[in-house]
């Protein structure tokens, strides 16, 4: 079944006649468009893609299975004026990706149509990756693995967090990534206890742990990996905590499989950390989906019951953070399979003492 037909099945199941896809990663997933402005109209028997003149050539080269329209910048107005919704009476819109102003504009433009905002449209469809999509994620992750190996000689006393982050970006781009999946996290010493620390001019010192979280985007698909390394012999408790986090990650990987809930996977890791006495030091969820977005559905969290579909690519990233001392996080990227998983991350996980 084509992706547009999967959208039509979803729309019909919600008692509607059409869907306006305005979230660009979902537009790309559905018809292949990679630009920065466009609306996809999917009705029961047609599909139209509307964009502006900057993308006239690009859209006609990229867009599959939808008629391309290039009216200018008044995309919603074109949908209404040209009757692209046909005889649709109820139209779904992506509630979590449409502004209130745009919703009101649509309702004014389409007074005879019921415009219905719905959250989380397409998330399950997008999460279940095809094998070509998995290959693209695998290729992006291979770049990040190679970058990790390349940068290890730079992780030494006197190197600043910012300089190391710059090298991470350079090495990803040099190896074919079109951009970073997110700003790299490089956090040394006590700053590693900040889960989302931004790199600073602070220099690495002997005996410290350095937490490195990085990922790149290749052919639209993202990678994501965290490793924590020691610069010289670390504090004895740091070694202990590292082992706890590694065991917690393995416990989650041991149960990761299609049909499991994000809550089950999260709790497998969380139980190991809690049993070691560090439960309160693991304050974030275990992981997230990844693909055309760095963070997408499903979530792996104790607060959700998202059921993991086969083909979903997810991160497994437990951590322990001790304020004013150090932090440890270990993150792999894995594909959910029937009866298990495929780990796409090749970088070593034993504690590296540099």
Which features characterize this protein?
354 residues, alpha+beta, Creatine Amidinohydrolase, Chain A, domain 1, Creatine Amidinohydrolase, six-stranded mixed beta sheet, three-stranded antiparallel beta sheet, 10 helices, 19 strands, 33% helix, 23% strand, elongated
Count of distinct structural domains: 2
Helix content: 25-40%
Number of strands: 19
Task: Please report the distance between the alpha carbons of the first and last residues.
Answer: 51 Å
N-to-C series of helices and strands: HEHEEHEHEHEHHHEEEEEEHHEEEEEEE
CATH superfamily of the largest domain: Creatinase/methionine aminopeptidase superfamily
In terms of structural class, how would the helical and strand content be classed? alpha+beta
* Strand line-up across the major sheet: 4-3-2-1-5-6
Estimated radius of gyration: 23 Å
Task: Estimate what percentage of residues fall within beta strands.
Answer: 15-25%
The poorly predicted ranges are none
CATH level-3 fold name of the largest domain: Creatine Amidinohydrolase
Mean pLDDT: 97
Please count the helical segments. Answer: 10
Largest sheet: 6 strands, mixed
**Shape verdict:** elongated
CATH class of the largest domain: Alpha Beta
CATH architecture of the largest domain: Alpha-Beta Complex
């Amino acid at each position: 079944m084509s992706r547009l037909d999967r959208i039509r099945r979803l729309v019909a199941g919600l008692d509607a006649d059409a869907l306006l896809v305005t979230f660009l990663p979902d537009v790309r997933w559905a018809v292949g468009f990679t630009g920065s402005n466009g609306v996809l109209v999917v009705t029961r028997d047609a599909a139209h893609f509307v964009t502006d003149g900057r993308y006239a050539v690009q859209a006609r080269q990229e867009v599959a299975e939808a008629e391309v329209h290039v009216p200018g910048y008044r995309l919603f107005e074109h949908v209404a004026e040209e009757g692209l919704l046909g005889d649709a009476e109820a139209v779904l819109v992506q509630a979590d990706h449409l502004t209130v102003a745009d919703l009101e504009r649509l309702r004014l433009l389409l007074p005879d149509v019921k415009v219905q905002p719905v959250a989380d449209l397409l998330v399950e469809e997008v999460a279940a990756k095809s094998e070509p999509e998995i290959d693209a994620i695998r290729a992006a992750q291979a770049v990040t693995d190679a970058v990790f190996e390349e940068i290890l000689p730079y992780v030494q006393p006197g190197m600043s967090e910012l300089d190391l982050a710059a090298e991470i970006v350079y090495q990803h781009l040099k190896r074919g990534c079109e951009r970073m999946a997110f700003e790299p996290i490089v956090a040394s010493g006590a700053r590693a206890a900040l889960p989302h620390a931004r790199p600073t001019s602070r220099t690495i010192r002997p005996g410290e742990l350095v937490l490195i979280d990085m990922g790149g985007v290749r052919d639209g698909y993202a990678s994501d990996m965290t490793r924590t390394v020691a610069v010289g012999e670390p504090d004895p408790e740091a070694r202990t905590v590292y082992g706890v986090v590694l065991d917690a990650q393995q416990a989650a990987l041991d149960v990761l499989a299609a049909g499991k809930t994000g809550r089950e996977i999260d709790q497998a890791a969380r139980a190991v950390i809690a049993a070691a006495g560090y439960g309160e030091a693991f304050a974030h969820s275990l992981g997230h989906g990844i693909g055309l977005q760095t963070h997408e559905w499903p979530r792996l969290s104790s607060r959700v019951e998202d059921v993991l579909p086969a083909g979903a690519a997810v991160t497994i990233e437990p951590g322990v953070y001790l304020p004013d001392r150090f932090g440890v996080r270990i993150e792999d990227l894995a594909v959910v399979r029937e009866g298990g998983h495929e780990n796409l991350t090749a970088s070593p996980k034993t504690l590296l003492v540099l």
